[in-house]
Amino acid sequence: MDQSCLLLLYLLLSLQNCLSVPISRFYSFAGSSGDQTFTNVDDQATFINLSHDFIFYGYNFSTVFINNNGLLSFHQAVNGYTSDSFPLPQTLIAPFWADVDTRNGAGTVYYRETTASAIVSKVAQDVQLAFPGQPSFTAKSIVIVTWYQVGYYEENNDK
Ligand SMILES: *[C@@H]1O[C@H](CO)[C@@H](O)[C@H](O)[C@H]1NC(C)=O
Ligand SMILES: *[C@@H]1O[C@H](CO)[C@@H](O)[C@H](O)[C@H]1NC(C)=O
């Protein structure tokens, strides 16, 4: 990864009763974090106009689509609900590809872009720890997306 990369997409996910990382270790979300919310949808997407281009596989992207089904995509929204194997024709990052359904208030997808220095430097530190080959990695902007206690098709919220 190019260490001058302008943007790191930091992906957080949560599924009730299926936590791989304790909530206490998540980057801040909801509450006073400034998150926007995306809720009460099935197979839909919203997007963020990024403050800095995200360079990914040779393209400079200025928009990221946040797909309810646990995907971040770049050229367009992707409404697929079945996790297909890579490689795929779409340009995407798949932190949590599942048949998410937040209708009926079944969970919330929180998202924001931030340049808050405490978060930017914490993410840089985490990347440096996880990728020892990138000791001077820095970021300018972070996108945080949290799929929090989301339900699944069709309008279920019991997991
Ligand atoms: C993103 O930018 C486009 C044009 O540059 C604008 O029309 C649109 O309202 C913006 N959307 C958001 C969600 O910021
Ligand atoms: C993409 O961004 C990089 C870094 O800012 C720049 O050097 C490059 O020319 C850009 N490429 C395109 C196709 O805009």
UniProtKB/TrEMBL annotation:
<keyword id="KW-0732">Signal</keyword>
<protein>
    <recommendedName>
        <fullName>NIDO domain-containing protein</fullName>
    </recommendedName>
</protein>
<dbReference type="InterPro" id="IPR003886">
    <property type="entry name" value="NIDO_dom"/>
</dbReference>
<dbReference type="GO" id="GO:0007160">
    <property type="term" value="P:cell-matrix adhesion"/>
</dbReference>
<feature type="domain" description="NIDO">
    <location>
        <begin position="95"/>
        <end position="159"/>
    </location>
</feature>
<dbReference type="InterPro" id="IPR051495">
    <property type="entry name" value="Epithelial_Barrier/Signaling"/>
</dbReference>
<feature type="signal peptide">
    <location>
        <begin position="1"/>
        <end position="20"/>
    </location>
</feature>
<dbReference type="Pfam" id="PF06119">
    <property type="entry name" value="NIDO"/>
</dbReference>
